[in-house]
Structures are given as C-alpha cells and as structure tokens.
Design a protein that fits this description.
single chain, three-stranded antiparallel beta sheet, globular
Length: 73
C-alpha cells in the first residue's frame, strides 16, 4: 500500500518550483474569506496558484516558499 500524499507538501514543492523559475508571487483577496497566491506565468499570464481560507495561511505558505533552499545544487 502506498501512503497518502501530503497535499501541503505537494503545494509547497510546486510553488518552490515556480520560485526557482523566477516567477513573482503575491497574495490577493478574491472573496470575503478567500485569499490566493497569485503569480504571473510567461505562457499563461496572471494565474491563481493556490487558495486559502485566511490571509495568514496564504502568507505562511508563501514565506515557506521563499525560505526553502533550492534543491538544485
């Protein structure tokens, strides 16, 4: 049996990959209680990369993205 994957870890890895591609990200409010990490991808333009219930959750993930050292040695 395979263990379930941690979606937070998967999301973090995707965002770190985007960071390594020099994609700028910020946090935007998209609803009364919905926040998103927003970025600009060369092919797709402006996109919402992830949604969160609180600003603090979005900020925490984005801080982890920029604090995670690059795995390309």
């Amino acid at each position: 049996m395979t263990e379930p994957r941690d979606s937070s870890a998967d999301l973090l890895q995707v965002l770190v990959s985007l960071r390594e591609s020099a994609i700028e990200c910020d946090i935007v409010q998209i609803g009364v209680s919905t926040w998103a990490i927003h970025g600009v991808i060369p092919v797709d333009g402006e996109v919402l990369l992830a949604e969160f219930d609180t600003y603090e959750d979005a900020k925490s993930i984005l801080e982890q993205v920029y604090a995670t050292p690059s795995e390309t040695g």
